[in-house]
Design a protein that fits this description.
It is a single chain. With about 300 residues, the protein is α/β, with parallel strands linked by helices. The chain has a single domain, classed as Ribokinase (UDP-N-acetylmuramoyl-L-alanine:D-glutamate ligase, 3-Layer(aba) Sandwich). The protein has ten helices and 14 strands. The strands form three sheets. An eight-stranded mixed beta sheet has the order 4-1-9-10-11-12-13-14, sandwiched between helices. A hairpin with a 2-residue loop joins strand 7 and strand 8. Helix 6 crosses helix 8. The structure holds adenosine-5'-diphosphate. Adenosine-5'-diphosphate (ADP) binds next to helix 9 and helix 10. One of its GO terms (molecular function) is 2-dehydro-3-deoxygluconokinase activity. This is 2-dehydro-3-deoxygluconokinase. InterPro entries: Carboh/pur_kinase_PfkB_CS, PfkB_Carbo_kinase, PfkB_dom, Ribokinase-like.
Length: about 300
């Protein structure tokens, strides 16, 4: 049995499709991956979500949704007086735009208690974090989380990291680059998206992204290219794995679900190329349906 702990922020999602009533949901990059991991892993494996929520009714509802999805909530911190972050997806002439209210969300306190972090990561086989997880934390909390990840790694856990670069969430570009590189250096698996990486780090091509993270200390790097071939780099060298051409309806959650399919396959013992194909197989189903969290067959 493997226990995976995903760490980050789950938000209230208000989706406003054109010509239809608004829909309420709960989503966020690392939460989406936890949600798909739960679907991709066998029942015997455990998926826990580590975040912080408030003591309000919306936080209660979110916790209920996590439990209903089969995700462990035993390490969710409760911060009296704080509330979850929120975002709205506005659609106009088929174009989606996202507006966020997350500056004071409870999740920003997820790494405030080092003892709670250590307890949550004890016995974890894999720990999954993203650049968004790091971005929303204070510099002190980032340092606490990095120390906890380092300790988990020393105790035998593997760290999986999607840089998921969102420059607007960071105080400045230099801090983004420094923290993302440091986190990747702890990781057994780094899952960057090339367009974001090129913008933030100036990488010339996906191979350069993979080489940069490998040089930072990452063991395996899988570079996503928005539906193009994925570039992999591990001790066996560089590889390319194409993906099936599909006409996407909504790419929200594509990368998150790809990461889950890939990680679940690796945990199940698949080789890297087969794991990438498993990631594509999950993501291909997700991009064909509207919404971040949709039914998939694994
Ligand atoms: P991210 O959201 O992290 O940037 P990508 O957009 O690169 O991730 O997509 C991740 C995966 O989702 C791809 O590797 C592919 O499997 C699937 N995917 C995304 N966009 C498309 C597309 N236009 N056509 C087919 N598959 C896609």
């Amino acid at each position: 049995m493997v226990r995976v702990v995903a760490i980050g922020e789950c938000m209230v999602e208000i989706a406003r499709p054109e010509g239809a009533p608004p829909r309420l949901g709960f989503a966020g990059d690392t939460y989406n991956t936890a949600w798909y991991l739960r679907r991709c892993l066998p029942d015997g494996d455990a998926v826990d979500y580590l975040t912080a929520l408030g003591d309000d009714p919306v936080s209660e509802e979110m916790l209920g949704a996590m439990r209903a999805a089969g995700i462990g909530t035993g390490h969710v911190r409760r911060i009296p007086g704080r509330v979850p972050g929120l975002y709205m997806i506005h659609t106009e002439r088929g174009e989606r735009s996202f507006t966020y209210w997350r500056e004071t969300s409870a999740a920003r306190c997820l790494a405030d208690d080092p003892a709670a972090l250590a307890a949550a990561l004890e016995g974890a086989g894999w720990v999954y974090v993203s650049g968004i997880t790091m971005a929303i934390l204070s510099p002190e909390a980032r340092a606490r989380l990095l120390a906890a990840l380092g300790a988990a790694r020393a105790a035998g856990a593997c760290i999986a990291f999607d840089p998921n670069l969102r420059p607007r969430l960071w105080e400045d570009a230099g801090t983004l680059r420094r923290v993302v590189t440091e986190t990747a250096g702890l990781a057994a698996l780094v899952l960057p998206s090339f367009d974001d990486e090129a913008a933030a780090f100036g990488d010339a091509d996906p191979g350069a992204t993979a080489a940069r993270y490998a040089a930072a200390g990452a063991e395996v790097v899988v570079v996503k290219t928005g539906g193009g071939p994925v570039v992999t780099l591990d001790r066996g060298g560089r590889g390319t794995v194409g993906c099936e051409a599909v006409a996407p309806v909504d790419t929200t959650g594509a990368g998150d679900s790809f990461n889950a399919g890939l990680l679940a396959a690796l945990i199940g013992g698949a080789g890297l190329e087969a794991a990438v194909r498993a990631g594509h197989a999950v993501a291909a189903q997700v991009v064909r349906q509207p919404g971040a969290l949709v039914p998939v067959t694994v």
